[in-house]
Amino acid sequence: MNPNTLRHGMNLWPPFLFAGIHVTEISPDWRRVRVELRARPWNRNFVGTHFGGSLFAMTDPFRMIPMLHCLGRDYIVWDKAGEIEFVKPGRGTMHATFELDDAMLDALRAATANGEKVLRWFETDVVDADGEVVARTRKQLYVRRKPGR
User: Fold this and answer.
1) For 34-56, what is each residue's pLDDT tens digit?
2) The predicted structure's pLDDT at residue 100
3) Is the pLDDT of residue 1 over 90?
4) Backbone phi, then psi, for 108, in 5-degree steps?
5) Containing domain of residue 71, as a range?
6) Distance CA 142, CA 120 (A)
7) Using CA atoms, how far apart are residues 129 and 107, in angstroms rounded to an integer?
């Protein structure tokens, strides 16, 4: 699947569509993803700010999927754990950007070269329109080279 097709599909996927989550960019090389959470009457909590579950959901698959594509078919990549820290109330449109670089990918390839699993944490900030941090998320990925590869 190409990145643009996935982006369109994710934007029509009911859990994202109805939560106000919109994937604005997936780079052609899978190394950059940008997601936004738009404020809607149905995705606010009791006090009128973004529902925390939506803030976490907007970051959920965007470490695993690009990593899987960048490492290729010789690797197993799974989400292992996740956590979120709410820093301040979120109002308006929220943004999160995920990036992979050569150093990160090379380090994972080297660490898994002998077939061992690697558990690695990745952090992403969710920011508001002013660039202020609303939430900090952490995702732990399980990465392993497939046996015999």
Assistant:
1) 999 999 888 888 899 999 999 99
2) 96
3) no
4) -70, -40
5) 3-145
6) 7
7) 33
